[in-house]
Amino acid sequence: MFIAILTYRKPLSEVDKVLASHRDYLAEHYAAGDFITSGPQTPRVGGVIMIRAESREAVDSIIAQDPFNINGIADYQIVEFTPTMFAESSLSDILK
Questions:
Q1: Which site in 28, 61, 70, 86 is 20 to 30 Å from 36, CA atoms measured?
Q2: CA count, 13 A, side-chain hemisphere, 93
């Protein structure tokens, strides 16, 4: 399991120009089962994506497709971790 922590390199006006294509990219990877959850940081200085992948190389390949990466909008810190405990509720229940 991986967490990608995105930090914007460009002003929000530049981020917003690429946001629709970034959301399309997110939707594609949710449909493929790669992403578990994602959203903007508060305050809006970047974002976070929880990723299901078999390797760091697979994550790098996924991130390479992100319009935020392609257009130099964000830097990415990738954290790999091994989940050992889980909430009994589903993630969608927890986030309500």
A1: 70
A2: 5
CA distances from 54 to 3, 71, 78 (A): 13, 26, 14
| Number of domains the chain contains | 1
pLDDT at 93: 67
Residue pLDDT tens, the chain, 96 long: 999 999 999 999 999 999 999 999 999 999 999 999 999 999 999 999 999 999 999 999 999 999 999 999 999 999 999 988 887 776 666 665
| Residues 89, 95, 96: CA angle, nearest 5 degrees | 95
Residue 55 is part of which domain span? 2-94
Query: In sequence order, what DSSP letters do the residues of 1-15 get, joined into one string?
Result: -EEEEEEESS-HHHH
Query: What are the backbone dihedrals phi and psi of residue 92, each rounded to the nearest 5 degrees, phi first?
Result: -65, -35
